[in-house]
## 1
Amino acid sequence: MATQHNIKSLSLYHFQGCPFCAATRKVIEQTELNVEQRDIQRQPQLRAALIKGGGKPQVPCLLIEKEDGQHLWLYESSDINHFLRGYAAQSKKRA
Ligand SMILES: N[C@@H](CCC(=O)N[C@@H](CS)C(=O)NCC(=O)O)C(=O)O
């Protein structure tokens, strides 16, 4: 799994009417993490990118881009929320 110091960026694939996405957006708001939000209903090309990269159109999905160029596609809101909280806690410790 990616650790705090080797992550380049985080992006959330989501859409507005999805309750699982809403819960994850709330965690992003609470943790104040810098996560780019990519709405797959507003931009169909993002849905295509999600399927191509992650393997399926399910949202929420967190794209973790590492410094070495590796891309990790994390599905399941409970796993994403757990990851975000841990990442936020690590970031605070290192600050
Ligand atoms: N267990 C998943 C459920 C996610 C889910 O059902 N997302 C719906 C939108 S609310 C979805 O993407 N459905 C389309 C699909 O699975 O292909 C989670 O907690 O993230």
Note: The chain has one domain: 4-94.
## 2
Amino acid sequence: MVTSRDGGTSMPPYAGLNLGDHVGDDPEAVSVNRRLLASRVGRPVQFMRQVHGAQVSLVRAPGPPPEADAMVTDAAGVALAVLVADCVPVMFESPAAVGVAHAGRQGMAAGVLAATLKIFDELGVDRSSIDVTLGPAICGRCYEVPADMRADVQRRVPGSGSETRAGTPALDLRAGLRAQLATAGVGRVVLSDRCSAESGDLYSYRRDGRTGRFAGLAWLP
Ligand SMILES: [Zn+2]
């Protein structure tokens, strides 16, 4: 499940359901928004302190946010949340365990998806039972980067290089992640075609600078 700006209490420039508590928004508004989300999913929501890396945390019960860019749980009493505003929210769903990952340029290149799947392996979850969703994120025609950065990321993650509409160097994060998943042995891979920078109902750091964060969530029923 992925949230949007709809239904929250934050004021501009965070207007809507901002779930990020590290972006300068009123802490009271963020905590009301987080309570609204928890009541919508019917269980406590576990957030993380995201650091653009590939650290994965195994969660068994709600607690303070771990310093991590991915979480996995085999417990039904908690929903896992990843916060984004252009980076890719990745949801892993299997009958035995679920996970979320924060996959931006750095996390993708650092191998956050592979690190997350390794935790599923350690739990004994069959990879073919895991469906992976790559949620709304900045698209390959909007995410302009310097030419040397594109070359570096494309070398580390083949398939991630792209071009903007103007023909300048860009990255397509979801294409790179899909390429990484192609050999990972997972079940279904679903790609959202929504671009955060082109969708006014989503937060986009590239478009707006100071702004909120929306969330991708996964939980066991
Ligand atoms: Zn776009």
Note: The longest helix spans residues 27-41.
